[in-house]
Amino acid sequence: MSARLEILKKARSRMIEDRDAYATVLAAPFDRDKAERARNKFVELQTLIDALDRAISGEMSMSSENSP
User: Fold this and answer.
1) How many domains does the chain fold into?
2) Which of 49, 57, 66, 68 is the most buried (most CB within 10 A)?
3) Helices then strands (H, E): number in the chain?
4) Largest CA distance in the chain
């Protein structure tokens, strides 16, 4: 596995952990201020995770094209 792919996968894993913390806040009893901030951060992190997924897919397809 290429170093670039390894880094992307580690970054994705880290962002999932961060996203899960905000999901926990969203699942807790409602507190408007906390829920609003958590919702915004959750969406921001999910967008980043989606971008990382695309980067990982691109890296994997480039790797498979370059292998014999």
Assistant:
1) 1
2) 49
3) 2, 0
4) 56
Domain harbouring 31, CATH code: 1.20.58
Cα separations (Å) of 35 from 10, 24, 25, 57, 58?
27, 10, 7, 32, 34
Alpha carbon 42 to its chain's center? 10
Burial class (CB in 10 A: 0-12, 13-18, 19+), 24: exposed
Q: Judge if pTM exceeds 0.85.
A: yes
**d(C-alpha 11, C-alpha 7), whole Å:** 6
> Domain residues for 60?
3-66
